[in-house]
Write a structure and sequence with these properties.
Layout lengths: L1 E3 L16 H11 L1 E9 L16 H6 L1 H18 L5 E8 L6 H9 L6 E4 L3 E2 L2 E2 L4 H11 L3 H19 L3 E2 L16 H4 L1 H17 L2 E5 L1 H4 L9 H9 L3 E5 L12 H10 L4 E8 L14 E8 H8 L3
Parallel strand pairs: 1-2, 2-3, 3-4, 4-7, 7-8, 8-9
Antiparallel strand pairs: 5-6, 10-11
């Protein structure tokens, strides 16, 4: 079976992604996906948190974020029911943690009856985007003290705050900080031992509450040699007994399942034989499901080879 726990659409992430959510789901079905986690970005609360493409009319850009999130949940629920016979749809969102004050917002959004889970992510250092472009990445480095090592250290400290306050079931692109780095494949353990200690600390936190790291194939389409997390971090996660889920982090129809073959080879090379996903109980649309209450979530083990069997047909 093929699946993703992290995806986006242009319908609810305009300027950031492409295509209507329903078209993306239909394409996933055509590829043989059996489970799809919908995780549009959560709304932000401050003008200073807007991205450059939102700054033509900042007040209007900010005002639309919460209504858009509500519209997303309604549409996701409609599609969850409509396509229940063909695919198991999970409704979630990608959390933001620009500053600790966002923790309460993430918690409140996660309490919605339709929301099954959220992806705990960090896209910023000191509230400056680290994956937007090289200019913003340079600003993030400056904000952390002027060196990449300092920026990495700050990133993992802020990630630690997110992990300890929210305990996300799925941790998104654990080492996103390396995307625009001057040396994305550097041996952090050897070059920056103090940063490595923070990485191990954060992995231990996730392991302690039973969270999952996603193997996120989007790093490969963005030019990195390994998915998120890198092999060095993934090996440490395995040593701690940690579990992986799988994500394409797609931003439109064209990116659904992109580089899954390479991601599976990466995991297999590390000795991973099983991946994990979630199943709603009861399944959406079946007799007896009641609206207005959260479904139970059941952890489901999926053999890596069963995913590869689907991917090999693409």
């Amino acid at each position: 079976m093929a699946f993703t726990m992290h995806s986006h659409s242009g319908q609810f992430c305009p300027g950031h992604a492409k295509d209507q959510l329903e078209d993306i789901i239909k394409h996933a079905i055509s590829l043989g996906y059996t489970t799809m986690g919908l995780t549009e970005h959560m709304p932000r609360t401050s003008l200073e948190d807007l991205y450059p493409e939102e700054l033509d009319d900042p007040e209007a850009s900010l005002a639309v974020l919460f209504p858009r999130h509500e519209a997303y949940l309604q549409e996701a629920r409609r599609l969850q029911l409509k396509y229940a016979p063909q695919i198991h749809i999970l409704i979630g969102f990608e959390g933001e943690f620009l500053r600790p004050a966002y923790a309460s917002l993430v918690t409140n959004l996660a309490a919605h009856p339709s929301v099954d889970y959220f992806v705990g992510s960090l896209h910023h250092v000191n509230a400056v985007p680290i994956d937007y472009d090289t200019s913003y990445y340079a600003k993030a480095i400056t904000s952390a003290g002027g060196t990449e090592e300092a920026a990495y250290a700050r990133y993992y400290d802020q990630q630690h705050a997110m992990l300890t306050s929210l305990h996300p079931r799925v941790v998104g692109h654990f080492d996103l900080i390396r995307l625009l780095s001057s040396s994305p494949s550097r041996d952090i353990r050897a070059e920056w031992p103090a940063v490595w200690e923070k990485i191990v600390r954060n992995l231990a936190v996730v392991a302690s509450y039973g969270g999952w790291l996603e193997c996120n194939s989007s790093a490969l389409r963005k030019g990195l040699a390994e998915p998120y997390p890198s092999g060095q971090i993934a090996a440490e996660w395995i040593r701690l007994g940690g579990r992986f889920t799988l994500s394409d982090d797609s931003h439109g129809v064209a990116q659904v399942g992109t580089n899954y073959g390479r991601a599976l080879d990466f995991l297999s090379g590390l000795g991973v034989t099983s991946l994990w996903t979630l199943r709603r109980d009861p399944h959406p649309g079946v007799e007896g499901e009641e609206g207005g209450r959260k479904a139970e979530l059941v952890e489901e083990e999926v053999s890596l080879e069963s995913v590869r069997a689907v991917v090999s047909k693409w």
